[in-house]
Amino acid sequence: MSWIAFAGKEMFRKRILPVTFVLSLLFVSLYTFGVYKISTNFEGHVVTLASNVSDSIVLVTLGLLFSQMIIAFFILFTTMGAISGEVENGLMLAVLSRPIARWRVYLGKYAGYAFWLVLYAGIMFFAILLPVHYLLHFPIVPMTLLKTFLLFIWIPLLLLGISMLGSTYLPMLGNGVACAMLYGLSMFSGFAENIFNQSGENEMISRFAFVLKLLMPANALLNRITFELLDGLELPLPTQAVESMGPFAVFNVPSGAFVGYTIIYLIVILALGCRAFRRKDIA
Where does the record locate the signal sequence feature (predicted)? Predict the structure, then answer.
C-alpha cells in the first residue's frame, strides 16, 4: 500500500494526474459525441447487421487505439525517470538508506505505478465501449468483455515494465525517446502489415513486423482485442465487411501462444530490471 500511495503522490505532485484527467475527459467527451452523431444519422435508414457491426467495430477499435496511445504516453512520461531520474535528484539515496533489498524497491515501484495504470486503463476501456453499446446497440458478450478487458489492461503493464527496465540503463530523456520510438515503430509495422501485406506474401514486412511484435507486443495485443470482439459475436460476417475496416481489420491474429509469450516476456523484463537495479552504482 505504501508504494501505491507513493506513486500516487508522485504523479499528483508532478501535475500528471490532473492534466491526464482533464485531457482524458475531453477525449472521451468528443468520442461519445461522435458516436451519438453517427447513431442519429442511422435513424430512418435501413442498416444491415453486417454494416452496423463493422461500423461499430471500427469505432471501438479506433477508440481503444487512441485511448491506448494516451495511456502509453501517460506511462512513458510518468515512468521514463522512475529509476534514473530519482538517482539523479538524490531521492533514490534516501529510499535505499532503509534496510530493504533493491529488488523489493524495484518491484514495489512497479506495483505502485501498475495499480494506478490498471485503474486508469479500466476506466478508459468502459468509457470507449459503453457509448457504442448503448447508442449503436453493439452486442457485448460477458466472456468476450472479460477477455478484451484483461488484454486491454495487460498492455499498460507491459509498457510499464519496458519503461522501467530502460530507466535502469538510460537517462530520463533518453529512455523516454527510446520507448516512444519503439512504441511508434510497433504501431507503424502493424498498420503496414494490415495495408500492404494482408495475404502474408511479403516476407520482409512479415519478418519486420514479427520482430517488433516480440520487442513491443502492444499493437499485436490490440489486434487480438479486435479479433476477440469479432469472434465473440459469433456472427457470420461476410469477408467484405471485415475488409471494409481497412487498416483496422485483423488479418494476422496473434495466437493464444503469443499472449502466453507476453506473460513470460513481462516476467523476464522484470527480472532483468531487478538485476540491473541491484548492480547499478548509486552513490
Answer: none
Res 46: pLDDT: 55
Radius of gyration of the chain (CA): 20
Q: Specify the amino acid at residue 163.
A: S
Q: CA–CA separation, 161 vs 277, rounded Å?
A: 13
d(CA 24, CA 240): 34
Q: What is the pTM of this model?
A: 0.84
Other beta carbons less than 10 A from residue 270's beta carbon: 19
Contact predicate 182/72, CB 8 Å: no
Tell me the three cell numbers of residue 104.
523489493
- Residues 4 and 115: beta-carbon distance below 8 Å: yes
**Each residue of 144-172: pLDDT tens digit?**
888 889 999 999 999 999 999 998 888 88
| Phi, psi (deg, nearest 5) at residue 219 | -65, -35
Find the range with the poorest average confidence among 21-30, 39-48, 113-122, 162-171: 39-48
> In this structure, what is the dihedral angle of CA atoms 241, 246, 247, 251, given to the nearest 10 degrees?
40
Q: What is the C-alpha separation between 157 and 110, in angstroms, rounded? A: 9
Cell representation of residue 17: 494526474
Cβ contacts of 81 within 8 Å, gap of 6 or more: 88, 167, 172, 175, 176
Instruction: Tell me how crowded residue 101 is: count the other CB atoms within 10 A of its CB.
Output: 11
Give the integer Cα–Cα distance in Å for 73 and 71. 6
* Placement of cell 527480472 in the chain: 271
